[in-house]
Every structure is written in C-alpha cells, then in structure tokens.
Amino acid sequence: MKARLPSYAVLTLLVLFLVGPFFVIVAASFSAGSTLAFPPQGFSFKWVEKVFTVESFQASFALSMFLAIVATFAALVLGVPVSYALSRYRLPLAETVRTIVSSPIIVPGIVVGLALLRYLVVPFGMDITLSLFLAHTALVLPYAVRVVSASLENLRSDIEEAAVLLGSSRIGAFFRVVLPNIRGGILAAFILGFVTSFNQVPVSLFLTGPGVRTLPIDMLGYMERTYDPSVAALSALLAFMSIGIVFIAERFIGFSRYV
Amino acid sequence: MFQNRAEGFALALPAAIFAAVIFIVPVIILLSGGMHVNGHWTLSAYTDFFASSLDRLVLWRTLKLGILVTLVAAIIGYASAFAIVSLSPSSRGRMIGIVVLPLMISPVARTYAWLVILGRTGIVNQALMTVGLTDEPIRLLFSQTAVFVGLLQLFLPLMVISLVSALENMPNDVVPAARVLGANWLQIFFKVILPLTREGLVIGGTLVFVGSVTAYITPAILGGSKVLTLVTLLYQRVTIANDLVSASVIALILIVMSFGTNILLRKIATARNRA
C-alpha cells in the first residue's frame, strides 16, 4: 500500500532521535578525560567506578529505591480497592471519586511539592522522608488506578458473581477469583509506579533536607557543581536498569500494552 | 454490578480521603495564598503578575514552547505512526517497544545527554569545527532551541503511541476507498485520516502540551536562568526571592493550563464526534 523506503527512513530518524542520546551517554561515561566531551577522550572505567564511591549517590540511591518500592506498594493498597469499587459497584459520585484519585496526575508536580512543604512539613514538623513517601504515594495512585481499572474492565464480572452465588464470600471471591486474573495488570502497575516514583523530580524538588535527597535531585545538584562524566556514567547505569526492568516485564506480561 | 453501596464506599473512601488530605487540601491552601495578601483578599498579586513584563514574557515563552513542541510532535508523530502501522505485526511490536522504552528512562539522564550533544565540546560543535563552518564553539545550550529539542525528545513517544493506536483502530478500507474515489493524499489526510484519528491526536496532544509546559528538568538543565519557563520561574521565586505569593500565582496559572487543556481537548473530541 505504501512505499517502503520513506517509511524506513522515517523510522530510522525516529529511533536515532529517541535512542541516540542514550548511546551518547554510554559513550561519554567511558571517557578517560576529566570533562564531559564527545567523542570521548580515550577509554576508561574510572567514571563508572567513581559513581560507586560518591557517598551521597549511595544514600540517595537507597532513598529513591526505598521510596519507589514502599510508595508504589502503598498506592496499590489504596488503588486496587478503589478501582474495584469503581468498576464493580454502582456508586453515586463515582466520577467525583475517580477525579479525586486521578488529580495528582493533572496538577503539576512542582505545585504539589511546594504545597506539601508549606502546609504539611513546615507547620506540622513532618519528617521529610515521611512527606516524600506521602507525596510519592499520591503521585503513583493515579497510575495504579488507571492500569488496575483497565485490567478489571477486561475481566468479566460474572465469574466473581458466580463464585458468590456458589457460596464464596465477597472477599474470598476477590482473592481467589479476581486477584489471580488481574495479576498481570497489578505487576504492570507496580513497574509503572516504581519507575514513575524513582524518576520523579518536580514533586521531590522542594522536599529535601539535610542528608535527605532522592537520586535524581542529587544528580541535578551534582551536575551544577561539577562537569565531570560521572553523572553520564550514573545516567547510563540507571538507563540500563530501566531497560532491564522493561525487558523482563515485556517478556512476562507484555508490559507495553499496559502503558 | 454489586448494589451494596456501603461496601463500595468502604473500598473507595481510603484512597479518596488520602488524595484529598495529602494532595487537594494543601494545594487549595497554597492557591488561596495568592489571593490573600497582607491580611486582605485581593487579586493584586495577579494584576502584578500580568503587569510585569518579565512574567508576561515567561508565560508567553512557556505557551509558545508548549504549542511548538505539540505541533512538531504531531507532524513527526503522524509520519512515524504511518510507518509503524505499515510494518509486519512482529516488527511493529518491537518498534513500539523501542518508542516506549525512553519513557522508562530517567528524564535527568535523557536531558543530560543533550549537554553532551549540544555543549561547548559536544558533538555538534565538534562537527561544525571539523567541517570548518565555525572556528570556535557556538553557544547552543541555554537557548530556547535547546529546551525545545529536549522537550520534544522527552514527550514525542507519547504522541507516537497515541497515534499508532488511533491508526490501528481506523478501518482498513477507508484510505483505498478514498483513493479509488479520486482523492489526493492531502485530501485523504485532512478529510479521512484526521477526523478518524482525532481522538488519538487529542490524547497525545494533551499529554505532550501539558508535559511540556509543566516540565522542570529540561528548562532547568538546558535553559538555565537565561530561558526561564513558568516552572523554573516558580522555583526561583520560592528559593531565591522567597516570594510565596507570586509562586502561588504561577502555581494557579500552571494548574489552569493543565486542567484547561484536559477539559478543552476532551470537549473538542466529543463535540466533533457527535456532529
């Protein structure tokens, strides 16, 4: 139907534009020189090694990892029941509830971070890590609701009604019939939530304290102070981590159809 | 459908209350701060914002960048989406995977790559000097162009994915039918394809526009204080000027832009579908 050559040309350019910069970071991180340059000056592992010796990176990596796992878990604990209620119960105000739990995705992150800092952290003396946990949970919640809701919509509701008719309790039917069937969706929601929280910058921008900084914020600060390729090396490592996660998720649950 | 309302509410309320307390209430208090100055309810902070030429310039620049990125993303998006749906199913899946992948990579890392590409000793400058087009490095960073390229790279995948699924849902025979009836490619695109993929374009456009006008990392790294956008201006107002009133004004403008785009584009999509 269409000429093939222009089509391949377009796709080549697209891939070059989207993926090319990633190869640039990888190449820059193996540079032997002391400033960021391309093509890299020589070849060495020293910047990759340096990433592992910068103490603040270790602490902020641990914090980001912890936040991403705990906040995504909390968002699912809140998000699965509300998605179930929205898809299986006839609720008055259902649209209002949906808007409320989805709103963190529409309000710009920097506004959320500032609001939390001024009206939860400062007046109530809330711990920064706790405020980060709450902010990230709110941020991941819309993704959890969206992906889990889509899985629930694709699952026929008569099978759990049948289970209830056959004498199962509502809760029993949920855990034995519904949950096993939306496993893929929950796993996809977890991965999407994890990545969203781990990479999040605007929300966490104001929520930093002495020694409490998420990894992306720490990287931004480091970039302002130094111009050496260690941030390139760290970026490359993080990109490899994301690629690994997505690759495994794609193999097992067909991740890209949930995004 | 279960009819038990109490049970349904018991399942829905924890999440709704959490989002309201942690999120909606603090944001509303923040926004009201911009209308409550020196103990009075007033809109003076808003008139100050629109009276300041710097603030107006930043607002206009943010809008302009958002619109440009969205337009260019739509053009590249259609070209790419056509190419992707013309592939065989297996390579189509692989190609979608490649398009989705950057979305999972840290935006800090993705933006950082542009420092390497556009920096003084970056690829573009090296190439220009080797070819002899310039003797010394030209400044590519900290310009609107750099911010534009960074934003486009960041948000283009969202547009491509939306348009691919819109094209996949389009009936197969409409383009050949229009062709047989003598329409040229321009007519086919504007009279057949565009109306049938409008919803995908609207969804992709909303994501790209709102993402661009509310992005922090890209303007902060690639624009610096030379190319302020509303978000980086807000950050400066809080951290440098400690001016919460002005920050709250910018926050409301950002929220209006984000909510407004969502509502407006949803309206356009449904209104035209009814007609």
From TrEMBL, chain A:
It comes from the Bacteria. It is found in: Cell inner membrane; Cell membrane. Its main location: membrane. PROSITE patterns: ABC_TM1 (PS50928). It is a multi-pass membrane protein. Keywords: Cell inner membrane, Cell membrane, Membrane, Transmembrane, Transmembrane helix, Transport. Residues 61-249 form the ABC transmembrane type-1 domain. The keyword Membrane applies. GO terms for cellular component: plasma membrane. Gene3D superfamilies: MetI-like. The chain crosses the membrane at residues 61-87, 99-122, 128-148, 186-209, 229-249. GO terms for biological process: transmembrane transport. Belongs to the binding-protein-dependent transport system permease family. PANTHER family: INNER MEMBRANE ABC TRANSPORTER PERMEASE PROTEIN YDCV. This is ABC transporter permease.
UniProtKB/TrEMBL annotation, chain B:
The keyword Transit peptide does not apply. It is a multi-pass membrane protein. It is found in: Cell membrane. Keywords: Cell membrane, Membrane, Transmembrane, Transmembrane helix, Transport. It comes from the Bacteria. The keyword Cell membrane applies. Its main location: membrane. SUPFAM superfamilies: MetI-like (SSF161098). One of its GO terms (cellular component) is plasma membrane. Residues 59-265 form the ABC transmembrane type-1 domain. GO terms for biological process: transmembrane transport. Belongs to the binding-protein-dependent transport system permease family. CysTW subfamily. PANTHER family: ABC TRANSPORTER PERMEASE PROTEIN, INNER MEMBRANE ABC TRANSPORTER PERMEASE PROTEIN YDCU-RELATED-RELATED. This is ABC transporter permease. It comes from Pararhizobium mangrovi.
